[in-house]
């Protein structure tokens, strides 16, 4: 086989797949298919060549993460490689965008003036469907309410060569796993949970829309060379313990920022006890520890999943290149965590942050002590993290035990299938009926309550209550816009058990339920098939392939629209230091992208920058008064909402600065959290530390994300200060800038501010944005 020419031109798409192979490969099976994506090149030979070049240069064994990342280098011979320090120029294989972020990404691509995307790209309609009554009705209403946006995305996709997955097709990450991810792929997606694809051995990274535009434009994509955290798994998963418990435990160890700047690479003998979709669950929630992405080595579980989803040919070629798709013997990690799966217990994390980890056996006592409501009001299973066939089967096995004893859920119970394929298959195989019979409402194949698309009616806003979900995030007010909702994340199995029991104070491993006839019984551990015995049922066809030539097609955006707005270029840097910037708000404590640009009801404005800017920082806590969305307008002396004050400053020619705390901008990849401050007159964000994606997004839009060299300098800044940023005329990588802080009493403080800009990123700042710089280079 070594004489074969391993250049695989692989058309990846919905349904069956077609392989184009060189003459040397013609003996291998060819599969016909009716619909497929623009050819995506699975070129393991090129990847192997890059890896060989880099391994020789570095003269050491490589981790799996390094093999895939360095295997996609633009220039492996000359690229400066130093984990945690240098910026890599990479050539990802493909791009995926969900509909809430795709609007701004496609608006930016349109304004770039390019005729067609340079790499295979897809749009996935999953974020704009609100959960109200159940799947079919909610989907029909979403199509009506969002018609303008869906038409824009479908027509822009057709014109610029982007595949379009219609509303109802499923959640972006499940669709990618079923169709586009494969071992060794490098994929970027405009959603922070893109790392889900690491469950199929790919390096899949969440980015902002401007990064996606770079890749779609054929420009090398920049990523700071990631460190690699190794998680060694020993033992085997069994009983009540699930793949979700691995990441719940790791989140408790590493915290919400412990993975920042690193790829988490799972390895060790315990890996083989986890299903492919279980590995995807673990990688998906790796976003909650700030990791660049997470990945598992290629193994038989991935091969089975590829075969079951119609991609056996990819598995066959991956087998040929298996050494490329696992870490080298003797490779070194920057940090190693060891987990014995034999000893791992079921976990539940929360409330209000996904890294507050508790064993399920202890949560009742902790909740009592902490004053958290014990009654579980709603149990919600599904989401991009946990909506696989296996997840639904294991939950259904518990529901069936309850039904057999005459019980239904005491809590409300919702079920979100991850894709149309999962929905159709669990309906065919009887899981949906069991979950409905126990009290479940099957929602649309979409994000729904996980991202706040939930018209919740059972509690009033401000009413303390507890919900338990199999989602990935549980920030304050994220799911239902109620800041008093205590949300806990756990496995679908534990959600189902707690929904049946109706209380947090229930450990299914030891505690008894009471059957309808009065007898006491214990739930047996959950059980479910990893993959369906029959093939997956694809359900309805929901994919629109772009035409071969879309140049004659029109993409209309009405100037009267309140949902969509064409972008105007941001102003260029004027060549001078930034003088007397007004502090808009000094933020206290946790400030996620949900605080900076809330989702939920605001999602409908994601394609209209001016309208969505009315939610800028309305969730952030003002240190001056501990209030949200109430800051002092220093020009008028009146208190008003953050966006209102920012607009007033902008109208009066006063640029401003935000001051923030640690891990500022953690959470979602939404670039609106960077676009809005820029649009409303912001120039600088100064914090103790940033989350990775948000820091990059700020740079892309021409803002200056800066960090205190001395974190205690945060305490010196007052809410009514004016700040000047000095040193911009000599702005260079690695050289700090200086802030002169003028207080209202006439005194001053001078402080040093660090930045992580490289040469290219400094050019973005000088041009006013990365998009402006791209246009400059075209002329």
UniProtKB/TrEMBL annotation:
Reactions it catalyzes: citrate = D-threo-isocitrate
Cofactor(s) demanded: [4Fe-4S] cluster
One MF term in the entry's GO annotations: metal ion binding
Pfam families in the cross-refs: Aconitase (PF00330), Aconitase_C (PF00694)
Keywords: 4Fe-4S, Iron, Iron-sulfur, Lyase, Metal-binding, Mitochondrion, Transit peptide, Tricarboxylic acid cycle
Region annotation (Disordered) ranges: 526-551
GO cellular component: cytosol; mitochondrion
Locations listed in the record: Mitochondrion
Entry EC number(s): 4.2.1.3
UniProt keyword Transcription, yes or no: no
Pathway named in the protein's UniProt entry: Carbohydrate metabolism; tricarboxylic acid cycle; isocitrate from oxaloacetate: step 2/2
Primary enzyme class: lyase
Coarse class of the protein's main subcellular location: mitochondrion
Domain of life of the native organism: Eukaryota
Any single biological process term in GO: tricarboxylic acid cycle
Protein family per UniProt: Belongs to the aconitase/IPM isomerase family.
Function comment: Catalyzes the isomerization of citrate to isocitrate via cis-aconitate.
Record's protein name: Aconitate hydratase, mitochondrial
Organism field: Myripristis murdjan
Gene: ACO2
